[in-house]
Amino acid sequence: xxxxxxxxxxxxxxxxxxxxxxxxxxxxxxxxxxxxxxxxxxxxxxxxxxxxxxxxxxxxxxxxxxxxxxxxxxxxxxxxxxxxxxxxxxxxxxxxxxxxxxxxxxxxxxxxxxxxxxxxxxxxxxxxxxxxxxxxxxxxxxxxxxxxxxxxxxxxxxxxxxxxxxxxxxxxxxxxxxxxxxxxxxxxxxxxxxxxxxxxxxxxxxxxxxxxxxxxxxxxx
Amino acid sequence: xxxxxxxxxxxxxxxxxxxxxxxxxxxxxxxxxxxxxxxxxxxxxxxxxxxxxxxxxxxxxxxxxxxxxxxxxxxxxxxxxxxxxxxxxxxxxxxxxxxxxxxxxxxxxxxxxxxxxxxxxxxxxxxxxxxxxxxxxxxxxxxxxxxxxxxxxxxxxxxxxxxxxxxxxxxxxxxxxxxxxxxxxxxxxxxxxxxxxxxxxxxxxxxxxxxxxxxxxxxxx
DNA sequence: GGTATGAATTATGAATACAAAATACAAAAT
DNA sequence: ATTTTGTATTTTGTATTCATAATTCATACC
Lengths: 221, 221
Description:
By secondary structure, chain A is mainly alpha-helical. Helix content of chain A is 70%, strand content 5%.
């Protein structure tokens, strides 16, 4: 495999690279909520000076992943029950919209691709492989979002889901809940194939509402 | 008038202050879309060094108000027709949600306050005072948003509306459109007073859709 | 022993200094 | 005259330095 020598050379600014890495670390739970993020420590860890690191921190703060307290440094934002209660209805509304838009624009090829992923996901469900199931689940929602042909919407969804993603492992789905989620996905696929936007919107919104309920139950015990 | 000596002394970081000022300048159209924002120039204008200014720029960039091109500086983000097409449906979905939530939580006092503003707004309409009308209009939507009791939602709405706010003056409403907008607002108030969330959601969504149409017409000519 | 006070340390905020890239401009070549 | 190439200038990216606020820790006092 040779590299494309004609491809444009691109070097990203450090603050971009740093923001991406830190975002990933936070979203994937490598940095615990509430954890103090000391500048000096991170600087030596990444081998950069404080200036680009601080710029990255401002970005993460506006994204809501990090909490900046004047003169008192930076901590990983905590995810409270209230945050989830706030975020999920919004995600539901945005998903509903993306479903509606997707029905208007999606191609047969895209539907086929989603169907394929869906079937693989069902097999993961049958095999009880939760992690793989999640992964495919996410890809499906991603593809629906892409079919909506609205980058602004996609970006907002991504940002919001990044914030609540850390709660994912809390959604320790009961077998009953899991079965239901798969059934919901069947219907979602149906509606999408039929280009029934209104129905898909309702299904996606309810799907999100159910997910919230699962997470809430996991958190309150 | 004496100052409150017991009030906590608060000094904001410069980057916060700068972000606020620049955001205001962009949203209010004092800085033209596409305009180059040279660091040195802004630094001398605000009397600060480049460090806090650059931090503020990163924030505005993640908010989508400013475009950052590596090694090539910063420009005020342009507002394309596509941007509006993308943003308005999202705002519609969010407004619809906030309407639904507001119906669940709003107090009689808040409804009364909105009714008062509404009536003042109608009088501004009758007087043909567009600017005052806009101002009251905005306050009403703000109060509905507050009644939804969802700070995350409020913050997202605010951010999005900030981005499209610059297109406001384009919505050079025709008399017919203006009359219709007022009628829509009557119905919105009714639904709110009746706590009819579903109906309010539809009304707000349609209200936004109409606004988009107006702006589109203004832009395409 | 526990609390309060103040000096020393450490961390953050902001400005400056240095490095690298982009732009502007002038000179040379076609 | 137009294009190309090399150089000067400007602008942006990053590191370092200085200033200021917060924290820690030792000491004095109740």
